[in-house]
Amino acid sequence: MERDITHRCGHVERRHLAGYWAGDMERDAVRLERSKCTACAAEARRAASAAKADAARQQLADMQLPSLTGSPRQIAWADGLRLEKLAALRRSVPTALDQAAAITDARWWIDHRTASAAAIAATVDSGATAQAVSCER
To answer: Out of the domains of life, which is the source (predicted)?
Structure first.
């Protein structure tokens, strides 16, 4: 059933309410009313990601990072990922920081976006050079 929902942010969206029973659909509507609309939620996620990247950029201000390689979309995405992962490495495994910072392949950072700092440190400390690590797929 389609229904207009006024979200917490004040925006109105037409949403599909799932459920067989009317009570289920009403609970779904109330839950949606307590949340932000799709656009505001996406903007909040973007702002949080930008704030995280800025904090990481400030932590790594003393480092000269090489430019990333890849498509423009990959570079835009991987730049924030690399900053966050390098900041985490600086806090937890500083010995692997220089080796990880030398990885310039945007795809590598995207592929390892869910890896922990310890996992990235283990990958770069495994004896492979940064170039070999960046080409490994």
So the answer is: Bacteria
Q: Evaluate if pTM is beyond 0.90.
A: no
Could you read off the pLDDT tens digit of each residue along the chain, which spans 137 residues? 899 999 999 999 999 998 889 999 999 999 999 999 999 999 999 999 888 888 888 888 888 889 999 999 999 999 989 999 999 999 888 888 889 999 999 999 999 999 999 999 999 888 554 444 444 44
CA dist 92 → 59, 88, 99, 125, 129 (Å): 13, 6, 14, 14, 21
Q: Which residues contact 16 (CB under 8 A, 6 or more apart)?
A: 1, 2
